[in-house]
Amino acid sequence: MAFKFDPEFVHNFALSTFEQMPGLANLWNFPNDFAKYGLEVNGNKWDFPVGLAAGFDENGKAISFFTKLNFGAVEIGTVTPKFQIGNEKPRLWRYPSEESFRNSMGFNNLGAELVYQNVVGANRNGKSLGINIGKNKLTSREDAAGDYRILYDKFAGVVDYLVVNVSSPNTPGLRELLGKEFLREIFSELEKGRKKTPRSLYLKISPDQDFKDLENTIEVAKEFGLSGIIATNTTIMEQRGKGGISGKLLRDKSKMVRKFVMDRIKEVDHMQMIAVGGIFSFDDIWEHWKMGGKLIQIYTSFVYQGPGILQDFKNEIDRVLLKNKINNLNELLENIKDAKR
Ligand SMILES: Cc1cc2nc3c(=O)[nH]c(=O)nc-3n(C[C@H](O)[C@H](O)[C@H](O)COP(=O)(O)O)c2cc1C
Fold it and tell me: For 233-280, how does the pLDDT look when each residue is reduced to its tens digit (9 = 90+)?
């Protein structure tokens, strides 16, 4: 029924309902159980291995709702220093039979100050909160690092982790920042902020970089001691039109990129890869775990399948724990090589 209306209208309507009625989450949630399903990564506690990906709650208006669901962590944003209206509408398209979206939103958000008020005013229900940060469209390449620094300094004291986003296809020139030199500029600037307020810091990557460039990107992430890489953002499929594709149409590409990244970071103890992009089933999660990953984020599958998807994942985790005669997820992941599906 909701799929009869304009997708952005439905999205905004749902968000404002969640904002006003966070208690609605009780319809779907189950008791949090950190001892059983929890994972601790770089000092951040995730009550459940699956988190909400960036872009759903750009402004942090419905943090109290999403953290009441069983997401292990909620990532808000992308936030830019100044208010931004985003690209012209329409800018969100759905492909229901393919369980996918295409969007060219362009970081529409209220800007750092108002989002900050939302963050400090929210009930987080004890969950980890991340913020995804980006530059304003009108900020030049030369000043881009400054935008990221402003956002780091503003939010590092009030969130659990930050994510540098240079991988959205919808801000002209943004993906150029994935080049080694620009990334170095950004992370050198952030290093100053990190000295004052250390916080977990991730880089979100695009699935459209060629592997040679990606290798360089990973190098920089290692060089600056990042907490990890979030892989991946949406992909461009020119035949479909402008914007980035998410969901099942992104799945294979995203998986290929994740494998490439994982092979290059698995020896670095403190580095994690958070898997996002076309994750719909427990099989997708299992594949990530077998590769050595722990944490997962979802967006499109959450929209198409609804909040019950978290309960489905929990049921599968329960089944696998039982099958392997293991009491908790942490132990399962420590023994994942020999674990049975
Ligand atoms: C409408 C929409 C808006 C998005 N906005 C952002 C954003 O602002 N920042 C970001 O890093 N990712 C954004 N994403 C990308 C998602 O966080 C995620 O990386 C991507 O959709 C792949 O995951 P999925 O297949 O589970 O949706 C957006 C995705 C969609 C569908």
Answer: 999 999 999 999 999 999 999 999 999 999 999 999 999 999 999 999
List the catalytic residues. 168
2-24, pLDDT tens digit by residue? 677 899 999 999 999 999 999 99
**Integer Cα distance of 184 and 194 in angstroms:** 15
Per-residue burial over 34-49, b if 16 or more Cβ lie within 10 Å, else e, is bebbbbebbebebbbb
Report the SS3 class of residue 272.
strand
Q: What's the number of domains the chain is made of?
A: 1
The atom number, within ligand 1, closest to the CA of 204 reads: 11
Q: Is the CB of 250 under 6 A from ligand 1?
A: yes
CB atoms within 10 A of CB 212: 7
- pLDDT(169) > 90: no
Among residues 220, 243, 196, which one has the least CA distance to residue 101? 243
Strands across the sheet with 244-247, in order? 92-95, 100-103, 244-247
3 φ, ψ to 5°? -75, 0
Q: Is the CB of 108 under 6 A from ligand 1?
A: no
The pLDDT value recorded for residue 324 is 98
Ligand 1 site, residue 300, Cβ cutoff 6 A: yes
Atom 1 (ligand 1) nearest CA: 103
The answer to whether the CB of 233 is under 6 A from ligand 1 is yes
Domain that holds residue 250: 2-338
Separation of alpha carbons 93 and 103, rounded Å: 6
Which atom of ligand 1 approaches the CA of 58 most closely?
A: 8
pLDDT confidence of residue 171: 85
- CA 121, 125, 129, 135: dihedral to nearest 10 degrees? -30
Q: Model's pTM, two decimal places?
A: 0.97
Query: Which sign, positive or negative, has the C-alpha torsion 176, 135, 271, 254?
Result: negative
pLDDT of 280 reads 98
From 163, 230, 246, the mutation candidate for ligand 1 (largest count of ligand atoms within 8 A of CB) is 246
CATH number at residue 37: 3.20.20.70
pLDDT > 90? residue 165: yes
